[in-house]
Amino acid sequence: MKTYKGRYKPTYTDKYAGDANNVVYRSMWERHVMKWCDENPNVIKWVSEEVVVPYLCETDGRMHRYFIDFAIQYRDGRQILVEVKPHKETLRPAKKQGKTRKTLLNESLTYVKNQSKWKAATEYALDRGWHFEIWTEKELTAMGIMPKSTQKQRVKKPLKPLPPFRKKKSKK
Prior knowledge:
This protein has 3 helices and 8 strands; from the N terminus they run ββαβββββαβα. By secondary structure, the protein is of the alpha+beta class. The protein has a single domain, classed as Trna Endonuclease, Chain: A, domain 1 (3-Layer(aba) Sandwich), CATH 3.40.1350. Strands 3-6-7-8 form a 4-stranded mixed β-sheet. A two-stranded antiparallel sheet has the order 1-2. A hairpin with a 6-residue loop joins strand 4 and strand 5. It is extended. The relative contact order is 0.14. The mean pLDDT is about 90.
């Protein structure tokens, strides 16, 4: 899967609570969320990767810093911290045929690391009366954040029927 990276220039710079000249997205999904926050009249403040949460990673037992994708403040007073991730990365890795042990190990370590981050982010948010949410392609689609043109088309074409199998007549 190709990743998209770049800079986002907010239209409404007064809504962006950080340095509006240094807003970086690391995926097209993050860019869509930035545009949504920027243009949504119910969002009064937002930042990207400005909230840093310390966390203890269970993979190495050391403290690390987690730069949360988004902090959003709504007009009604709600404040949320948001992580944007593909749905498959929120699930425990499974053994599948063809998957190497190395791939499974890497996916498992990433899963445990993410769980450590999300636990710390949840506690950090709750301490402040906020909420922590993970937005996958499912939430982005349901909220109308992800344009239809970027959603995966999962239409399967029917297979063409095969001609009947006929043994070739042997020449005697």
